[in-house]
Amino acid sequence: MHPLPTSIVAFIRFSFKVSVIYFVYLITFNCIQYMQVKEYMQFRKLPSKLRRKISDYYENKYQGKMFDENMILSELNHNLREEVSSTGVALLSCF
User: Count of CB atoms within 10 A of residue 38's CB?
Assistant: First the structure.
């Protein structure tokens, strides 16, 4: 088996770094949105029972994640998907 050319290896590494940055961006953006919902509930002085219902709704909607991991992974090439999967790092959540 021949080693990959240096330029291809560099491109794969760059693509992986961009993907990680994209993950962080999505998590941050969606966490900010969720924080705005929490601030809104406080501003409106909603009863705690209603706040819990709204929080449960968002947690259920995003299943504990504030991004679509399957969609993100489907956009990566096979090598990057494998590398992300092999990290074994649990993805962050806002909840």
Answer: 14
Per-residue pLDDT, 90: 54
* pLDDT for residue 78: 86
Cβ atoms within 10 A of the Cβ of 84, count? 19
Burial label, 31 (beta-carbon count in 10 A; 0-12, 13-18, 19+)? middle
Mean model confidence pLDDT for the chain? 78
Cα 26 to chain center, whole Å? 5
Do 92 and 27 form a contact (C-beta atoms < 8 A)?
A: yes
14 within 8 A of 77, measured Cβ to Cβ:
no
Distance CA 27, CA 29 (A): 6
Strand ranges (E), the chain: none
Name the one residue in this structure whose structure tokens are 């002085």.
Answer: 45
